[in-house]
Specification:
alpha+beta, three-stranded antiparallel β-sheet, about 40% helix
Length: about 130
């Protein structure tokens, strides 16, 4: 049996969907997801700061000012657990919750730039 081009059409992959941000710049789904996550974290942080009383907000502002002006944090390694989304369209774990994990990541500021490194499921301290 001979196949024609039309017989094989269902087996070809569809063209990738092109996304554009608010400025008309092309972006991937992962880029858009990361941008949304940063926005969500910022909103949650702002909500938590607003819940602090005036004295606590002042202490936080003072602490942040000291850290930023002294350049503190260069070389310091901070470990934290995070959930991550795999990006698969039909992943039940990502759809129903925070995502996969939690996984350990390290953060280190080097020459003013924050570097993130995946550690894994096991705690970095042992």
């Amino acid at each position: 049996m001979q196949h024609t081009l039309f017989d094989l059409a269902p087996y070809t992959s569809p063209a990738p969907k092109v996304l554009f941000d608010e400025n008309g710049v092309e972006e991937t789904k992962l880029d858009r997801y990361r941008k949304e996550q940063k926005s969500d974290r910022l909103k949650k942080t702002q909500e938590q700061i607003e819940k602090l009383d005036r004295d606590q907000q002042q202490k936080l502002l003072s602490w942040l000012s000291d850290r930023l002006s002294s350049g503190a944090g260069d070389g310091e390694i901070i470990y934290r657990q995070e959930y991550s989304k795999c990006g698969k369209a039909r992943c039940k774990t990502c759809e129903q919750g925070e995502g996969h994990g939690p996984y350990w990541y390290s953060y280190q500021k080097i020459n003013g730039r924050l570097k993130k490194k995946y550690i894994g499921k096991k705690s970095p301290q042992g």
